[in-house]
């Protein structure tokens, strides 16, 4: 029955080609708005947990007052080494984190970046370029530079790849770039450095040795991270927070989703795109119904039920949704590419997001159609003729 009415719905839509084009453009615009807002929101979450995902360990210790990488608080590394008392713990690794100023060696303009300090004796960061350059970090004032950092820091990666010596001023200390790695920019940091724990303390000479920001724990094969984390919570004092690696990732995501305005703004933008699309489609379908009110009244007079007319309008809404989604999807792919090039953020199309926006598009068109068809409920053939 549903398919029998498809020709009527399509014929009515294509009768006014200009109106159809305007409707499709409006739906495509709403889809683009939703795609971009959802894309930036997901890139916000993904980019800010790339460091977390790179950690080569199962359990993380932090200060209970630390809510995200942007606001890490230090704690005594004695708490971390105390975790070695548990049989399931294989090794522990202190990590230093802090933001400081990097002076562009070409322009001299300073810009903040994230500095990560680790013990180069162990590879605890799964990032391209880290493992092969760990020995270089044992040298004084040597750092690894993130080749995915923004261009405002200077042509560091290009100069280094050409075989030239690269030096820069970090926190008023001259450092040497000994290698490149890849992490990527995020909403919290436009650039990143990795160095040894000793070099970190040389750069941040106001930091006290032994006060770390993250404690990474590796477990022995077969150990259950959830069980060990529970044991550590009972064993360690309350001045340290014990998280599994996944809980550490979720904590960062939740911070950006609920504790910052930017996560709310992207969600609100998606809702506004949905509302804009609903209004546009409603205007088109309402005009369509009003222009053919006599014909619809005639159908009611000869015995067609309100349900039949509703199905016709909903079919028009479905056709509009599918036809408007295609250009919206295609143009969003183009905008994603331009956004990646401009911001260096991981803005990519995913199957889940493509399906999500398609469902939202169909839903907004169906809502518009259901509202527009209400006019037919009060269409009395006797009054019209």
Would you write up a description of this structure?
Helix content is 51%, strand content 17%. The protein has helices at residues 6-15, 17-47, 50-54, 77-82, 156-161, 197-203, 225-235, 245-258, 261-291, 293-301, 306-343, 351-372, 374-377, 381-384, and strands at residues 59-62, 75-76, 89-103, 110-118, 142-146, 167-170, 173-181, 192-196, 211-212, 214-219, 241-244. The strands form two sheets. It has a six-stranded mixed beta barrel with strand order 3-4-8-5-7-6. It has a two-stranded antiparallel ribbon with strand order 2-9. It is elongated. The two termini are 29 Å apart. It folds into two domains: 3-47 and 261-384, no CATH class; 64-239, no CATH class. With 385 residues, it is α+β, with helices and mostly antiparallel strands. Helix 2 packs antiparallel against helix 9 (261-291) and helix 2 (17-47) crosses helix 11.
Short key terms for the protein model shown above:
385 residues; alpha+beta; six-stranded mixed barrel; two-stranded antiparallel ribbon; 11 strands; 51% helix; elongated
Describe, in short, the structure shown.
The protein is α+β, with helices and mostly antiparallel strands and 385 residues long.
Beta-strand percent range: 15-25%
Strand order of the largest sheet: 3-4-8-5-7-6
Helix/strand order: HHHEEHEEEHEEEHEEHEHHHHHHH
Number of DSSP helices?
A: 14
How would a textbook summarize the main sheet? 6 strands, mixed, barrel
Mean pLDDT score, rounded?
89
Shape: elongated
């Amino acid at each position: 029955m549903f398919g029998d009415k498809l020709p009527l719905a399509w014929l009515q839509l294509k009768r006014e080609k200009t109106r159809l084009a305007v409707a499709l453009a409006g739906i495509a615009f709403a889809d683009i708005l939703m795609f971009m807002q959802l894309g930036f929101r997901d890139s916000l979450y993904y980019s800010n947990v790339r460091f977390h995902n790179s950690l080569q360990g199962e359990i993380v210790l932090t200060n209970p007052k630390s809510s995200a990488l942007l606001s890490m608080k230090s704690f005594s590394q004695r708490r971390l080494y105390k975790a070695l008392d548990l049989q399931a713990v294989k090794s522990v690794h202190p990590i230093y984190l802090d933001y400081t100023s990097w002076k562009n060696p070409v322009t001299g303009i300073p810009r903040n970046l994230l500095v990560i300090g680790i013990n180069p004796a162990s590879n605890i960061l799964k990032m391209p370029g880290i493992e092969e350059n760990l020995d270089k970090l044992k040298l004084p004032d040597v750092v690894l530079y993130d080749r995915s950092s923004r261009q405002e820091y200077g042509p560091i990666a290009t100069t280094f790849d050409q075989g030239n010596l690269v030096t820069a001023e970090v926190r008023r200390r001259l450092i040497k770039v000994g290698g490149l790695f890849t992490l990527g920019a995020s909403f919290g940091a436009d650039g990143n450095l990795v160095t040894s724990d000793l070099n970190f303390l040389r750069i941040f000479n106001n930091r006290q040795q032994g006060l770390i920001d993250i404690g990474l724990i590796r477990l022995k094969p077969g150990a259950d991270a959830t069980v060990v984390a529970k044991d550590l919570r009972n064993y360690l004092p309350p001045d340290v927070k014990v998280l599994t690696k996944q809980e550490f990732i979720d904590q960062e995501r939740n911070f950006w989703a609920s504790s910052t305005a930017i996560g709310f703004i992207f969600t609100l933008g998606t809702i506004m795109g949905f509302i804009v699309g609903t209004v546009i489609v409603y205007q088109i379908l309402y005009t369509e119904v009003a222009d053919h009110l006599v014909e619809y009244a005639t159908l009611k007079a000869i015995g067609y039920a309100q349900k039949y007319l509703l199905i016709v309008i909903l079919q028009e809404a479905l056709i509009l949704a599918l036809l408007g989604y295609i250009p919206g999807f295609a143009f969003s792919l183009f905008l994603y590419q331009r956004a990646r090039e401009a911001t260096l953020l991981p803005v990519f199309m995913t199957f889940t997001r493509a399906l999500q926006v398609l469902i939202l598009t169909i839903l907004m068109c169906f809502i518009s159609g259901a509202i527009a068809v209400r006019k037919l409920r009060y269409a009395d053939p006797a009054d019209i003729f």
